[in-house]
């Protein structure tokens, strides 16, 4: 009887300890094909949600109330930012080398608390390490140039976080950087197509005005992705591009800088690859105040038209920055047209291109019970 009970317990643990996986262009959780539907939270306190005692003091109750609301409206995943610009975490010494995830030792326990509560609500979490949409703190920006400093971040912060949290059932993926193309030196010719940014001319890339060479950005991604895989090969890794222009070779004024060959060419670390792609999309505005999509934007084409060999998530979008689209129809379009996930922007309700929580809830609710070709939206963790 004892052996039988032990066997049953082991089986239950095996079945309950699931994780998000990739097969071809699809996501699976515990063997079930799934579609990632949810929101960008993406922060409550920009860069100060985790670490150095900030979580319990400032964000825990708010974030847990949001997770509860997202679950109630049918979401299954959230995108949550961590270091952001490097002002709060990780811990840097006076010379700019990283000494740990944070200064006081709460970073990992804070993240675990967030993951535990997310799991209780059947929500998966994509942790975003860095933000390239705005200029980082100089000590964080230096990690893109001084690889000895980048290695200290990997050894003293990233690897400890992955070691502690990499097998958590609610951890969907690690995202190396949000919109790294904001940092890039645009319209810069290079004989290696992977580092040549002339295809991005007139696309708006480089909007953070830091002029970081593309090779540096790709090395930054390659090294961190490789480190994550070294610690836990089952962890998924992604990057959130600001538009389709940086993640496909099949469209005009576009190049897939994050394909395996380009990442390896930059950083020369074999495991430093992405497991899935992620594009952000917002409408343009003409001189009369009318909004319009790029002709190759996700809401104008199918996911398969980008010619990618991995899952593709529409990682940021908002109905207030569209061609007047209904938010429910936008979630439905992504589900029906060859994409593998949709995350609206953003639950804090702050800034120009953000939908209200009410609108985002409506969007998630629209597809919450669907289980068609794109996969199940509702499933247990």
UniProtKB/TrEMBL annotation:
Signal peptide: 1-18
Transmembrane segments: none
Keyword Signal applies: yes
Record keywords, A-Z: Signal
InterPro entries: GH
PANTHER family in alphabetical order: ENDO-BETA-1,4-MANNANASE (PTHR37398), GLYCOSIDE HYDROLASE FAMILY 5 DOMAIN-CONTAINING PROTEIN (PTHR37398:SF3)
Entry protein name: Endo-beta-1,4-mannanase
Origin species: Daphnia magna
